[in-house]
Amino acid sequence: MSILDSKIPEGHISKKWTDYKDHLRLVAPNNRPKIDVIVVGTGLAGASAAASLGEMGYNVKAFCFQDSPRRAHSIAAQGGINAAKNYQNDGDSVYRLFYDTIKGGDYRAREANVYRLAEVSGNIIDQCVAQGVPFAREYGGSLDNRSFGGTQVQRTFYAAGQTGQQLLLGAYSVLSRQIGLGRIQMYNRHEMLDLVKVDGKARGIIARNLITGEIERHSAHAVILCTGGYGNVYFLSTNAMGSNVTAAWKAHKRGALFANPCYVQIHPTCIPVHGTNQSKLTLMSESLRNSGRIWVPKKKEDAEAIRAGKLKPTQIAEEDRDYYLERRYPAFGNLVPRDVASRAAKERCDAGYGIEANDTMEGVYLDFSSEITAKGKQTAYASGNHNPNEEDIIRLGKKWVEEKYGNLFQMYEKITDENPYETPMKIYPAVHYTMGGVWVDYNLQSTIPGCFVAGEANFSDHGANRLGASALMQGLADGYFVIPYTVSDYLAGEIRTGKIPTNSPEFDEAENNVKELITKFLNNNGTKSVDHFHKRLGHIMWNKVGMGRNAQGLTEAISEIAALREEFYKDIYVPGDANELNPELEKVLRVADFMELGQLMARDALQRNESCGGHFREEYQDSEGETLRDDQNFNFVGAWEYKGMDINQSELHKEVLNYEYIQIAARNYK
Amino acid sequence: MASKTININLKIWRQKNANSKGSMETYKLDNVSTDSSFLEMLDQLNEQLVNEHKEPVAFDHDCREGICGMCSLYINGEAHGPDRGVTTCQLHMRKFKDGETIYVEPWRAKAFPVIKDLVVDRSAFDRIQQAGGFVSVNTSGRTIDANTIPVGKAEADKAFEAATCIGCGACVATCKNASAMLFVSAKVSQLALLPQGQVEAKQRVLNMVKQMDEEGFGNCTNTGACEVECPKGISLENIARMNREYLKAIVAAD
User: ipTM surpassing 0.95, yes or no?
Assistant: First the structure.
């Protein structure tokens, strides 16, 4: 039997979670303060999990590397959060959200987990509103919704283009409340550098105080990792500069299986790369595709003229524009899922129709002029002006757009120095989110007992492609509504354990490893900076493990990364001291883990001889360039077991996916 | 984008740690793309310093899209530099001239002690939030249906605007009194404007203001500089609202 037991409860899918919850073990209130829980990361999953567990009475320690838990990268999510409330009366339901998510993930996610996610989605909105999260409202005072990719209903709740910020500040407020009450000890500017296992169970972490450099031991009865995704393996991504895989990767090296590392979401609408000194990419929310139309010129010579600066997009006549998403996918149009939109942009640019004058000619237009006209007319009519002139229409239309997307438009203008109200935005796909992550069962427990993983850090809900506005949903669902139940069930077996000592040989060993690694890097008198190696790793990853992959490229990537990793350890130079704030030291420890992960991603992509979701193997596509899945041979979660420094020795385990409630089919958005 | 490069001189505050004395150091940096953000320019400087085996400049940053509030910097005497409505990570080098000398300092306030170079300790803000910046509701999810509490669009929009504060501390750094009133009032206002925040309104404003005073922030003398430098355009109206809430809380007996 596989070592992977997903622990999916029996019963009808709509009853599983309720019945299961009713039979989980509990910890009595008087026992909870005797039990220690560590939560690493304070994004939506971490802050909500820590707050919920603190509120229940457990003794919680929470960690983040930022200077405040409010700054975790969930804060940057823009567009919205999905919930099956059916407030818009357009036929939405828990089943539909479940179905859309499974289909959106290209039939590579676990049914039971996804159903639970859809089931609790409504509670998230109730909870957040009760906390004072200021969602967008309609004039009547009720909550407003909009559409996101891969759906035909309006189920996305939002707060302008800052939904992630508002939700995270909501979670931060409940976290702060518990910190103030003394139920949570918060460790800001701390980074987890190893997981400590005692007798096979997760029993604590080694963390570095980033200000003093002190290496600290923290013990607990359970450790919950909520440390986000690993998009920064590509160097350039929409992730925050500090986002990293270290906590998850250390757990992996201690025995937690790492699932589907090759599933990476490349987001279609980001601001294109401008130069070699660029440090990160900026997302333009998917919500913009509610109002913007994506196009490139129909004629190659027009594209060339635009790149040469001889023609402006506004000078291209309507009939000379190729609205390629509307052309290829009429049923969903501009709101196809992210992987589909990204590939379509790449296809046009590869064919020579890109409009950006950078090295790679990569860029397409996202154009708001049609929407400005349409909404301007609507607004004029609504205010009683049934014969508005052109000027009024444009003015009112721009005002409408500003109200919906003002902060995004401002952000775009600041970065590019162009006014998107007047000229279309230039956009191109960029690495954004990672569906893969630490393998977890239905309880969100990894293959290490006592080590739970929530939010983007786990692999569980999005299959091979995540739908827009579902990351926020998953983070809060995991933290508020799943972890408190399943972790309590685990902790029910720990009420007699007593305090976990930190003077055990296991803590000694973990601490020594961390210290040795730090000393090694600081004493290595190489010549190249951390960024130098990180950029080179990113270059290999983007070119060979990016939007289009093939067997030859992946094979090359595996050996190139192995060689780069060797050079990295020989030639790295890290300035400064171990006992002080040392940003270069923080970076080198993260990049060391990215090197190993990158190689595993390439291996995972190479073994998966099919195309699905964000994983596009060029060998497996139909005549129209759509993904070709192989359900016969690849209908499984690929979970890797670490087998030592040589990533080529890592072993693949398979969790077969059974679809009982959804008919598995070709994914069609046409 | 008409990209070009400029050469600049930098005068940057260097301070080894909280206990040591700092000073301004001079650096020369060539070939800075005008499309680079200010922080990308600092990356470039640090790369140059590392290649010379010198210690790079420590500065706080994370999301680099103007929302996490981690980046700071007092640039040429202004919080987040010369542009308006942006954080330092959104400030671009096209705002500077070739050959210009740029002064870079940390936030300066008694309540924000320097940790190293340009990095300061803003944990006072967290403690103010912990004193009352929340609605005391348990996280069971078993509250009431979200749409049973209607909130007028105007109030909802105002609450949202107040809630967009990113907690960067530019208001404090800008204020001649190092007052945190704009920051505190933004949270007080958000919750005061919404029905969910009413129950605890009195206690909230009293507790948050008390904590604010204890942290050593100064008082507001209506200069309005904070509003000008706030990257999110948080309005001074919030301070007026907080003062009203505070008066209501101390004057009105239960």
Answer: yes
